[in-house]
Amino acid sequence: MSSPLRSFIEVPADSHFPIQNLPFGVFQPKQEKPRVGVAIGDLIVDLSVLEELDHFRSPEFQGQEVFSGDSLNGFLALGRPAWRKTREILQRLLSTETPTLRDDTRLRERVFHAQKDVMMKLPARIGNYTDFYSSYYHAHNVGTMLRGPENALMPNWKWLPVAYHGRASSVVVSGADVRRPHGQIKPHDASAPIFGPTKSLDYELEMAFLVGPGNSRGEPVPIDRAVDQVFG
């Protein structure tokens, strides 16, 4: 049996980001440009520095440099082989068994940033946003309000991947203020609608997937290869 994977970085017991779970993002140190990083514990690993030092030169990266920019889009476009290879390289570099970072104080000062000292940015340029209407109970409740319980769902609802395009420009990073939407509202005692902010703001908890590398127009992705498009 292989020994459990351990990092030389001290990770708090209640952290969501041990060496087994390294989430990607885009961060910006003070007075510097945004770049791609990975969280481990309370720190961020600067992938642009590791890229500069040729740690990502395997064939999976196709000779491209994708970690010094301000989004994950270039990395997403490389596909699952590069995603897996990156995680493999990072777990090796962060392991207690590898001296590259562990024993080089100056290199660690370049590579690691405290999360509290940087600003997190939107990790990708989101060109499209598709919202799937896939929760039976949610759809049934809404349909009941609109059409009554007998006709809550359309006959083909369970067989259709019901989805609609959302406004990609409204996607913001965690912690950003959410603006109250404006639109046309018709008060019960008015003969015409008025334009103004919504009086009741609803919110939902949803699961989302960041997709890459994508497909060409007119070339659908087969179901058995759909998981290869899901980055996280």
Please provide a written account of the structure:
With 232 residues, this protein is of the alpha+beta class. It has 2 domains: 24-121, Fumarylacetoacetase, N-terminal domain (SH3 type barrels), CATH 2.30.30; 133-200, no CATH class. It contains 6 helices and 9 strands. The chain has a 5-stranded antiparallel beta sheet. The longest helix is centred in the middle third of the chain and has 15 residues, at 80-94. The protein is elongated, with a radius of gyration of 23 Å. The mean pLDDT is 93.
List the SSEs and their pairings.
Blueprint: E1 24-29, E2 35-40, E3 43-46, H1 47-52, H2 73-78, H3 80-94, H4 99-102, H5 105-111, E4 112-114, E5 118-121, E6 130-132, H6 136-147, E7 163-165, E8 182-185, E9 194-197
Antiparallel strand pairs: 1-2, 1-5, 2-3, 3-4, 6-7, 8-9
Brief account:
It is built from six helices and nine strands, in the order E-E-E-H-H-H-H-H-E-E-E-H-E-E-E. With 232 residues, it is α+β, with helices and mostly antiparallel strands.
Number of helices: 6
Q: What is the name of the CATH architecture of the largest domain?
A: Roll
What is the terminal separation in angstroms? 29 Å
From the spread of the alpha carbons, the general shape counts as elongated
Uncertain runs are none
Instruction: Please state the average pLDDT score.
Output: 93
- Report Rg: 23 Å
Side by side, the strands of the main sheet go: 4-3-2-1-5
Work out the strand percent: 15-25%
Largest sheet: 5 strands, antiparallel
- What's the number of extended β-strand segments? 9
CATH class of the largest domain: Mainly Beta
